Amino acid sequence: IGILESRDDVDLVFTDVQMPGTMDGIKLSHYINDRWPPVRLIVASGAAILEESNLPTGSRFFSKPYDSHAIIDAMAHLLSIRKHG
């Protein structure tokens, strides 16, 4: 969150569901979407299975282990939406 507060060049955040502290990746994705709507989001987890409908609209979820090519494709797609949409 500190990086997003101090910079305006972050276009995409990739986070895990499980994080240290009180905020998990799902809460983080909603917080980012509410505060910085243009930032695209990818959420991953090896422990949790969740529907993309639990995430902000336009976010992507990947369960671990994930295919790195699928992540790269998702990032490219989300960033193209960010620039052109």
Secondary structure layout:
Layout: H1 2-6, E1 12-16, H2 25-35, E2 40-45, E3 60-63, H3 68-84
Parallel strand pairs: 1-2, 2-3
Largest sheet: 3 strands, parallel
CATH fold name, please?
Rossmann fold
Structural class: alpha/beta
CATH 2nd-level architecture: 3-Layer(aba) Sandwich
Q: Supply Rg.
A: 12 Å
CATH superfamily: Response regulator
The arrangement of helices and strands along the chain is HEHEEH
Residues in helices, as a percent range = 25-40%
Describe the structure.
This protein has 85 residues and is of the alpha/beta class. The chain has one domain (2-84): Rossmann fold (3-Layer(aba) Sandwich), CATH 3.40.50.2300. Helix content is 39%, strand content 18%. It has 3 helices and 3 strands. It has a 3-stranded parallel beta sheet, sandwiched between helices. Helix 2 (25-35) links the parallel strand 1 (12-16) and strand 2. The longest helix is centred in the last third of the chain and has 17 residues, at 68-84. The radius of gyration is 12 Å and the shape is globular. The mean pLDDT is 91.
Summarize it.
The chain contains 3 helices and 3 strands; from the N terminus they run H-E-H-E-E-H.
Tags for this entry?
alpha/beta; CheY-like_superfamily; 3 strands; phosphoprotein; 85 residues; 3-stranded parallel beta sheet
